[in-house]
Task: inverse folding
């Protein structure tokens, strides 16, 4: 598209709207979970799958979605993705039971994996190099806005109970937006393809999804009522075996046509391997914290969705402020120490939260949570913004696109695993007999504290793994190349929570 063509700004608005829809839809669901549970009678296991199912499908399809755009055209796959996402949102809003909602959420995640990877690829193909810095800055603002506004939007839509639909408008709101984006996108977005697109690796996708499913399903079973069974341990062990088969297949795929789902040679780069470990474990942290936090406030403390959403505002603002400062001022000067400081800062906030939850008990109020939430948010902001650059800094330029896709896929996998682990670290310590109204507050507070000890421990482990990251990312020392790598379409910041 020529630089003088004003349609590129309409195209930008359309793809940014789609990115905003995805980011909001990830964060908007948590705050409505208690309403969903009450209205549909969903079990705690089903609640985990409503969130984890989206993350699992999104993670499994992310790299393939980018490659489909490279092969068949980014505009075509983007429109297919946004059309499917809109349909899946309608099915979520119309779900008659928890099973239908879970299936619709999985479909929503799968269609998002077609839509989201095309966003930055379309921007890259549409705008000349000298305009991309401004455009990516705008995109970063949209990411921050989506993270901040999602919980509050979800709280408002749930509290307003529009037309007596309770939680359903959090999904139905996507319909007019999605239809408009579909119609306008077909007119204003210019088609583009990668000159040398990698082939699809559908076997790899199936193995990733199967391995994750075998790990997640036993974790999400209701262990408050049922003890762990031998078949559950066997299934998780078999899931690890599936990942071993995946590694062997990816080596074969590399030799066969050079288009593996996972570029295993990247793991020979020490900083990349360490960064992937950080992404995976940080995804676990986010998956655990955001779900148990919602359950603690709305079910344990009995707060409304709006009350809980408003309580999280200091956290979101701290994340945004620290993220901007870390990229612009701190990382260029202090390098990986900023990320390590972020891990310790977030862990400190978690420890303060543990103390406050125990000290104030069920009588805790929102302003008392502000201190740990601001500290945690500041720590998270120091990590999330510069982490991708740090992980990619020593990756060869020809593999930058594949590495970017793997980073985001890994974080989504970690997020799904974290959501699955909630049944162990949170529900696993709640006695079924303590779910009576008189004791539920105390039981959920104790389970929340127990979960946060796990979160703090993982953050300390992340601090030590970060020592393998480069002292200063090379992007800050040498500058990046203006080149579109294969699979560049999948390089997009991941949302903060699910």
Result:
């Amino acid at each position: 598209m020529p630089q003088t063509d004003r349609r590129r700004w309409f195209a930008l608005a359309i793809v940014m709207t789609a990115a905003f829809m995805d980011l909001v839809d990830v964060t908007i669901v948590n705050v409505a979970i208690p309403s969903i549970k009450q209205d549909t009678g969903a079990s705690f296991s089903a609640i985990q799958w409503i969130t984890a199912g989206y993350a699992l499908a999104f993670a499994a399809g992310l790299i393939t979605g980018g490659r489909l755009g490279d092969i068949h055209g980014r505009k075509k796959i983007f429109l297919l993705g946004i059309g499917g996402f809109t349909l899946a949102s309608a099915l979520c809003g119309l779900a008659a039971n928890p099973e239908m909602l879970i299936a619709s959420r999985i479909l929503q995640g799968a269609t998002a994996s077609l839509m989201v990877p095309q966003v930055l690829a379309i921007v890259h193909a549409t705008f000349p190099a000298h305009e991309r810095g401004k455009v990516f800055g705008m995109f970063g603002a949209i990411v921050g806005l989506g993270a901040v506004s999602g919980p509050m939007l979800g709280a408002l839509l749930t509290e307003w109970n529009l037309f007596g639909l309770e939680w359903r408008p959090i999904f139905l709101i996507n319909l007019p937006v999605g239809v408009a984006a579909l119609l306008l996108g077909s007119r204003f977005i210019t088609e583009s393809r990668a000159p040398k697109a990698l082939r699809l690796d559908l076997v790899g996708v199936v193995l990733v999804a199967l391995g994750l499913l075998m790990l997640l399903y036993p974790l999400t079973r209701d262990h408050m009522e049922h003890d762990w069974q031998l078949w559950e341990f066997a299934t998780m062990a078999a899931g690890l075996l599936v990942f071993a088969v995946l590694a062997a297949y990816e080596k074969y795929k590399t030799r066969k046509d050079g288009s593996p789902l996972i570029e295993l040679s990247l793991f020979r780069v020490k900083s990349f391997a360490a960064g992937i470990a950080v992404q995976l474990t940080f995804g676990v942290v986010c998956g655990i914290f955001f779900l148990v936090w919602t359950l603690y406030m709305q079910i344990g403390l009995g707060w409304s969705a709006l009350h809980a959403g408003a309580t999280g505002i200091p956290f979101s603002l701290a994340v945004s402020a620290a993220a901007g400062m870390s990229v612009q001022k701190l990382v260029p000067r202090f390098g990986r120490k900023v990320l390590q400081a972020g891990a310790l800062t977030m862990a400190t906030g978690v420890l303060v939260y543990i103390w406050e939850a125990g000290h104030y008990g069920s009588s805790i109020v929102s302003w008392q949570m502000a201190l740990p939430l601001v500290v945690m948010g500041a720590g998270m902001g120091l990590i999330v913004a510069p982490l991708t650059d740090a992980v990619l800094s020593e990756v060869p330029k020809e593999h930058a696109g594949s590495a970017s896709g793997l980073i985001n896929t890994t974080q989504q996998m970690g997020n799904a695993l974290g959501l699955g682990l909630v049944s162990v670290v949170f529900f696993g310590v709640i006695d079924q007999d303590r779910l009576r109204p008189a004791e539920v507050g105390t039981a959920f507070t104790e389970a929340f504290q127990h979960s946060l000890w796990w979160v703090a421990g993982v953050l300390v482990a992340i601090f030590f793994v970060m020592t393998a990251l480069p002292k200063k990312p090379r992007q800050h020392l040498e500058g990046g190349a203006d080149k579109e790598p294969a699979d560049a379409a999948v390089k997009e910041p991941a949302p903060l929570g699910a």
